[in-house]
Amino acid sequence: MESALDYWTAKALLDWQIEMGADEAIQDKTVNRYELAGTAPRSADAPQEVTPQPPTDAPRAEPGSAPPPVDAIAAAREAARAAQDLAGLRAAMADFDHCDLKAGARNLVFADGIAGAPVMILGEAPGRDEDREGLPFVGRAGQLLDRMLAAIDRGRDRTEAPVYITNILPWRPPQNRTPDKTEIAMMLPFVERHIQMAAPKILVLMGNTPCQALLGRSGITRMRGHWARALDLPVLPMFHPAYLLRTPAAKREAWADLLTLRARLKDPT
Ligand code: URA
């Protein structure tokens, strides 16, 4: 007898597939990508996007009925550019009204750790505990992150071996859903300015969302452990600690990546 999947089971299955790198759409009909308007050449690894076509009888949005996200991105760029220091950047983000997530969040989650640390860690977005406390990575995944960092003698409070921690989104998405591309694009100017001000030597990207934001692609299973570059900095993608909680067998790879990070910190250039 068939039983319908509940929402959380379906989401866990989808998350698992994305973590495994199965991040490209499979459709009923093949898509001729050469015929898609405005298709830019992409690397073989990049997820492909297909513009969904509305059914012919579906109502079409009136031109101008929704504000184009590009306005929000331009506003974010301008606000981020105008900020002079981290306190100013935090205030600019708190003032930014274009992202709907703000309305549903209890707190803006800005950062934790020591700005100026050689390692800056980027996660996805606050969860329930982070939203409540206003600090990144304080829930179960954050506690695992702290243990991982302690294993290579680092920590957010260790002045002699610090890290600095933030997220791509400063507001919790409802039900902890994955941030969408519009939200990421809108908040990216703040993230980039944040990185510029914190001036780390190395960026660590936890999971697919920061990889998508800063490297323009996801597929963490393929990407983890391989150095890349973004904003003229060396970048190390790693499995997200929340994934490691669900998949303890992947801690082996995470440990290898931590050793890679520790070795690079001796000579980060
Ligand atoms: N997951 C994240 O990506 N960030 C947090 O701050 C907490 C959980």
The CATH superfamily label reads Uracil-DNA glycosylase-like domain
Tell me the fraction of residues in β-strands, as a range. 5-15%
- End-to-end Cα distance, whole Å, is 59 Å
Count every helix, treating DSSP H or I runs of 4 or more residues as helices: 11
Helix amount: 40-55%
Q: Quote the CATH topology.
A: Uracil-DNA Glycosylase, subunit E
Question: What is the CATH-assigned architecture?
Answer: 3-Layer(aba) Sandwich
Give the strand order, joined by hyphens, for the main sheet: 1-3-2-4-6-5
Count of domains:
1
Shape: globular
What does the model show?
- It is a single chain.
- This protein has 269 residues and is an alpha/beta fold.
- It has one domain: 3-Layer(aba) Sandwich (Uracil-DNA Glycosylase, subunit E), CATH 3.40.470.10.
- It contains eleven helices and six strands.
- The chain has helices spanning 7-19, 69-82, 86-95, 101-104, 128-133, 140-151, 181-198, 208-215, 220-223, 241-246, 251-266; strands at residues 112-113, 119-123, 163-167, 202-206, 228-230, 233-238.
- The protein has a six-stranded mixed sheet with strand order 1-3-2-4-6-5, sandwiched between helices.
- A hairpin with a 2-residue loop joins strand 5 and strand 6 (233-238).
- It is globular and about 40 Å long.
- The relative contact order is 0.14.
- Residues 36-65 have low confidence and may be disordered.
- Bound molecules: uracil (URA).
- Uracil (URA) is lined by residues 123-127, 130, 136-137, 139, 141-142, 167, 242.
- Residues 123-127, 130, 136-137, 139, 141-142, 167, 242 line the site of uracil.
